[in-house]
Amino acid sequence: MHITIKAMAIATLLATTSTAALAQMSVRVGGAPMFDNKNIIENAVNSKDHTTLVAAVKAAGLVDALSGPGPFTVFAPTNEAFAALPAGTVDTLLKPENKGMLTKILTAHVISGKYSDADLLAKAEANPKGFTLKTLSGDRLQFTKLGSVLYVVDESGNAAKITISDVNQSNGVIHVVNKVLLPK
What we know:
single chain, alpha+beta, two-stranded antiparallel sheet, 8 helices, about 40% helix, signal, FAS1_domain, FAS1_dom_sf
């Protein structure tokens, strides 16, 4: 079988392109690939598990901020997490007159800086009683490791489990959580 230089060059180009494309895709969230060369908003809008979060971010006017350079660490509640809130809560928060409250809740899910799962676990292991980080809202989130699971606890005492970690973005990282974190 005779392989020409041209055929080898094409095969090499295809292999390199496929490898580069795979390297940019870190994980799938809500059925959609998340690309580490896209920002938080560019990726989040494609996740079918985060349509409520995306609608809330738009209603709060935070799209530009979360599209900015960051870096940010976002704890992203799923649609199920929002659905677990008392009936009518999401609809009430999405009303224009409640934009301030919505903004406070959403920014209570964001920390300045990029904290990987390994970073958070290392801090939790070094601090068995937990440790806290300040959010963009000015509130604090406590991180506690129970067994092999890392939990995020809001100021109201609600514990959220990180269900998907290290969804890398061009401007930070997303960790998917199963609860909405509520500031006091």
